[in-house]
Write a structure and sequence with these properties.
The complex is a heterodimer of chains A (479) and B (436). Helices cover 38% and strands 18% of the residues of chain A. Chain A has 479 residues and is α/β, with parallel strands linked by helices. Chain A folds into 3 domains: 27 residues, no CATH class; 191 residues, Rossmann fold; 231 residues, 3-Layer(aba) Sandwich (Rossmann fold). In chain A, helix 3 packs parallel to helix 4, helix 10 packs parallel to helix 11 and helix 11 packs parallel to helix 13. Chain A is globular and about 65 Å long. The model of chain A has no long low-confidence stretch (mean pLDDT 93). Chain B has a domain of 282 residues: Thiolase/Chalcone synthase (Peroxisomal Thiolase, Chain A, domain 1). In chain B, helix 1 crosses helix 2. The chains are: A alpha/beta (479), B alpha+beta (436).
Amino acid sequence: MSDFLVDLGANPTARKLIKSLGLPLPLPQPLKRERGAWKARPLMDAKVAVGATPGAELSAAIADALSAAGADPYVLEALRPAFREAGETHGRPAKPLEALGETAKLAAVVFDATGIADVAGLHAVYEFFHPLVGRLAPCARVLVIGRAESAVSVGSASAEATAAQSALEGFVRSVAKEIGRNGSTANLISVARGAEDHLAPVIRFVASPMSAFVTAQPIRLHDAAKRQGAARLTRSLEGKLALVTGAARGIGEATARTLAREGARVICLDRPGDEAAISQLARELAGVPLLVDLGAPDAPATIAEAVRAASSGAGLDVVVHNAGITRDKTLARMKPEQWDSVLDVNLAAVVRVTAALEPLLREGGRVICLSSIAGLAGNVGQSAYAASKAGIVGWVRATSARLAPRGITVNAIAPGFIETRLTAAIPMAIREVARRLAALGQGGQPEDVAQAITFLATPGAQGLTGSTLRVCGGAFVGA
Amino acid sequence: MAKASREPQTRRAVIVAGARTPFMKAFGDFVKLDTIALGGAAVRGLLQKTGLRFDEVESIVWGGVILPSASPNVAREIALDLGLDAGCEGMTVTRACASGLQAITLAAAAIERGEYDVAIAGGSDSTSNAEIKLPQKVVHALAPLALGKPTPADYLGVLSQLMPLSEILPQRPRIAERTTGEVMGAAAERMARRNEISREAQDELAARSHHRAAAAIAAGRFEAEIVPVQTPSGKWVHADGLVRADTSVEKLAKLKPVFSRDGTLTAGNSSALTDGAGAVLLMSEEKARALGYKPLATIRSWSYVGVDPADQLLIGPALAMPRALERAGLRLADVDLIDMHEAFAAQVLSVVKVLGSKAWSRARLGRDEAVGDVDPEKLNVHGGSLALGHPFGGTGARMVTTMANELSRTGKRIALLGICAAGGLGAAAVLERVEG
């Protein structure tokens, strides 16, 4: 599952040689990732440029998120008062943007665009990013903070405000494609009224190496799910019980490991045929092995019973519906049983198992489903698979509303091309195209998806519910 | 954090007296005296000064950072070397630069718990006698020769394992964090930058430290605590060797930064490697009075904390000091004297700065108000480690002794001590003068 071009690109001599020879080889930037547990200061000593327009409303939250994460902020003059308190708290005094050395590279560029209320206001976005976009360090982060549509008041003037805020989405998607070859990402966080408190932990995730393969998308924060108490920044899943389906390998295994690293006790579920892998993983993570065939009629009851036993009746905090199958055939060639099994395991089982676990979910719980870029964009030979994965998107939206009063969030993750056993089986030529068409010019690792799932599982993701987070490296197609 | 308002003690430990050797620059006059010899000199001096009978001492609790690997329980070695009663037991503790204070608070706790009535606590270090370590690679390679019946082939095998030579050369000791690999000066340099502590402010603090220490020496203020030490060559050392009465901000400003080319920390505003020892005599109050001693002070409270060494390595006292005050039921405004260990001027000024910050206090202590502003007139009234030097384990006893004497001499009531230490540790203690 190695990518020759990424490996080659990691060698500075080869990189230089290929560049100077003018070979038409795309050399994707090896992505900076975090292999260990979440750190108290993921942006330690990272130079971050911060800008805002007049009337920006979230600069203090941005200041707090960045300073607490250990970043060294370089800010527009108007922002310095907003950064004063956070700087004092964390010993990270904000410096004027002009103090940034001529040759200094930026680890992140953050812009508070919440004050932009008309099309003319968008000029400030150009003005701020234009001189800085060439100064991004490899694997840097571009972050625009905007207002969710619902936060813009209804009225005649508001249509233009909505247009201006909506424009930011197209901006980050395009910037993501321009800076992707550098390993850098660009995302928009749009914040609904009342969800301001949910912003800091999301900035922390999106600005950190934890979000290596998350790019070119809007992340919308709402105050929908009932608020929970203050959360810790590290080991934030301590004392929590998580269930991961399809945990024997690939994304499921990586997810079980990542959740355990943040302190969760993990029930590792897979088919009875995977007993060896599951028991070994559960032993290593000090978790609980659970062998269940999700297609079996009694599977929901069996799982609920196992959860009850594992938690001594205390309940479950996190469910990750990761198990899934593909039976790729064009519609003309697809057999009915193929269609049925894909929809049953990928979608119906999610509905059934969640229904059985719902009474066991604790306040502030998490339901996380695996969708797919294929589900969002469609793919030849994947009518059943894409249908099941698009179904997930609708299901999380509807279920999130129902569980919000209990503080439970329900989200989907849509992975793009991820280097797994599944994708290794794709013919070489198609695989190459799939990799290179992403903004980041490479496939993702199972750990990238696991990190995003883990982020959604943390208390800091309380502002995200009913949404679908893409982990696709900026796939060429997609929502 | 639970509020530790301590129950009234039925027994109270009191500080009867303190003594220390002069503090000398490493590889100077004390080069031939190891940490046990230095500790012995301080304890002997303390016993002579107080006239305490040897068999009254029930325990020695000692702190040290560079412990001799062949005899790490320095406390017991001191007792045996001095010919104290064989029943005087000994324990040696290490908590980086807070080791000396740690020993003293441990002894106080043991006395208050009723373990014994009379203890000597303190610490010493001889950086001149830091052991040069062989890399573990060499140790492991030599094991078959040292532990078995080696054949010629074994010797050849060992030789081949020891290449390349660069990996087996003895390692120079350095004060670097094990987890981050960062040397302490570099950490302090980062703190200066992050807390915006200027070079001028650091040099001013350093100059003040020297001037105050020099004034204290000139006034004979340290005669009550320093015991002269005779070196193996027969030379008597009577006074601290690092204090420079003639230094000035202008002279200090000429020094080059040592930890970073564009940095602000110099040899002048950082404490020097030092050899020395300090010892404090602690007793239960009843015992002290029964023996006819006038107690100087008692330890109202203490606090030891840890902070992330990767963040601000030496900021710990800013947490430990308010916590110790809280345990004593006091506020910074109630404090008459503050003694802070000056590892680096930048570190002292960083701690002082955050103590004055409301935002910091809210985030780190969960309080609505700043801990308070530190009055420079109360801070390190007789200088600090920048001028006097810092024999790691010896500094705690030096601070306790100076402050206990100062409280007794001036009639002031409360002294607050703060010490930063490697590993991101911080320590603090509150001393109160004992009446009558």
